[in-house]
Amino acid sequence: MKTKKYEEVIKNHEVKPNYVKNALVSFFFGGLICAGGQLLIEMYVHWFGFVRETASTLALVTVILIASVATGLGIYDEFGQIAKAGAFVPITGFANSLTSAALESKSEGVVLGIATNLFKLAGAVIVFAVVSAYVFGILRYLLIEFNVLS
Amino acid sequence: MKAGSQSWKFNNNVYLLETATAVGPLESQGPLKNDFDIMYDEPYCGQKSWEQAESQLMRSAINKVIEKAKIKESEISVAFAGDLVNQIVPTHYTFRETNIPFFGVYGACSTSMESLMLSALMVDSDNAKIALAATSSHNSSAERQYRNPTEYGGPKPETAQYTVTGSGVALVSHKKTKIRIESATAGIIVDAAQNNPNDMGGAMAPAAAHTIKQHLTDLGLEPSYYDLILTGDLASCGSPIVVDILKQEGYDISEQHNDCGKLVFSPDQPVFAGGSGCGCCAVVTYGHIKKLLEQKKLKRVLVVATGALLNPLIVQQKETIPCIAHAVALCAVD
Hints:
The complex is a heterodimer. Chain A is built from eight helices and no strands. Chain A is mainly α. Chain B folds into two domains: about 170 residues, 3-Layer(aba) Sandwich (Peroxisomal Thiolase, Chain A, domain 1), CATH 3.40.47.40; about 150 residues, 3-Layer(aba) Sandwich (Peroxisomal Thiolase, Chain A, domain 1), CATH 3.40.47. In chain B, strand 11, helix 7 and strand 12 form a beta-alpha-beta unit. Chain B is globular and about 50 Å long. Chains A and B meet through helix 1, helix 4, helix 5 and helix 6 of A and helix 6 and helix 7 of B.
């Protein structure tokens, strides 16, 4: 039986997420992760004498490592529940999506499990990143070619 | 005996012979911890994968029920069993190790009462001496199939529910015990045009309301006939909806209604709106409710197991979620 007559009752009981609070919480935790990243860059520059460009790559690798280990220890999903998009948007969220998919597929073996499913969640991000890079690359080329940009 | 359009009355002495439950760690810390038979303190239950862990839950519950009822496996005439994983894999691998004639059933989270109802029908018609009904679900095997990897950090909304890790098994026979299976109502599929896999309670509530109303109509009963009308896993979001819908239809169940998803966990556990999964209704009914009926703290209970027949692929194809609810009435006898 298909029925739409209950939709109103269900709607009356709908729990609306608190968007303002969630946005503020995400801003705080996302900012905290970025501040941590900045701190790492400064540390690599001042204590280890790396040039700034190498230091920022190293900082990225470090936060990815921390997020992956935290995922493996079962901490990151709990952190994500508190930090909302603040845990999801930085590169740590990307690392978590890879590690969690890998962990989950471990029971099906290395090739058909881990390798096949590693990009199950992150695949969409990569596809859109590559496609948009092409689109904007072509756009930039055309704008330069027609002297709109220099 | 058929009663009305969707119900059966069991006049031929159908009793709940014995039940057994096995649960995971979070359920073992919950408010019903004293009502479960077997409690695992880690989610793998000593196995290598989530699916095998779920098999282990069902296997240990079946062994326990055979032990508690003091029968032999060969005395069981037929088994109806199911779970939530594709092709009901954990169930099949559990029954691979038995010699019991087996029927796999799938009713999503309504499987517990679906299998109990079929067992009762088999015994009522004298086609089985002892029938076994088994149901299981595992939080992680369900999460990975229906949602995201278990360690994925994307936040869940408050309407989300936590799939119960547990298995409940019941034996049904003519032998007189303290709990009689009085009647049962098979549900029809109700689709209330919901499509949010993170709000199953809201989607399933209309199906539960339809089955409860049909049960009362078919058997000519008032809600007050029951001490408790227990829905399977509507949790805190779906529970008020079922009460409201039935109020609109002229039945007030607000006094009698409760929900397994609300009973199985306490509010301070990290379970969002409450428990879900076919193990939820199974372990609460076969653990907690069975105990209360035996102690005569409850006289008559209508258990309405609610199932969201969700498939993640089809929902992505912009379909809505069809739902079903099956009801079984249990009563305490002297």
